[in-house]
Amino acid sequence: MWWNKEKSTMVELANSRSILGNTTQPDQRSDILPVAPESISPKLSTEAVFKSLALFAVALNGSLTVFGYMNLAGYLERFGITLSELDIDIPTLMFQGYLTLVNGVYGEANKYPLFGPAALCFVFVLIAGAIVFKLLPKHSPDKKFAISMFLGTLFLLSPTIPFLGAKYGMKLAAEDYSSQNGAWPKLGLQKTHTIKTNNGDISGAVLFSTKSYTIILVKNEVYKLSNDTNRIVRKITLSPREEPMEKFLLENQGTNSRTDHD
């Protein structure tokens, strides 16, 4: 019979903890909670801010370099000098671009009291507002507006901060001059540079200078001098441009035809 005492039944006890542990998949453990989207939004916003600032810095440096290049190109071209013959580095171009941007924008704004600065401030606030509304979409409109006003004012004033250092340097120069020559002239100083060359002394106004060359204007003559040897590399004579002979003949021909017709 099946209940015969000579027959034995083997029973194996299993650990209840192992059974419960095996029923749960490793990626479905109860101690791992889902991350709320709100908890990662500040990190993403911070990364977006730093990326935007980096892009803004690259764009600003590129714009200053282009402005500086075009400013020098237009200025020196009037005197017959091209930038391709001068070794100008990037920091010099950026500094010239900074001067061009600040003097041009702020100079034009100051020509119209109240309206000019207000319009300039409004433009900077709009630029700051576009950045704020892009990077902080979940903030309230009032908070966005306040941040835009703050950043716009900061953008407006930040380009003028370096001028404080220049103004202080000009003050020190005026004090040194006044200690030797009396009061500082009301209209400032006129500067004349004299350079000894192989053809004698040349006195005039320095238009531009690099590590290798100096461009000096003496009345209607422009001299390009080598800084290493003080030799005259090139001389340019400036004179008023005359009208082409073809234009003069066409105008006279038109005048004569009208006279004959009358």
TrEMBL record:
Transmembrane segments: 53-76, 88-106, 112-133, 145-165
Keywords: Membrane, Transmembrane, Transmembrane helix
Protein name, per record: Uncharacterized protein
Organism annotation: Pseudomonas brassicacearum
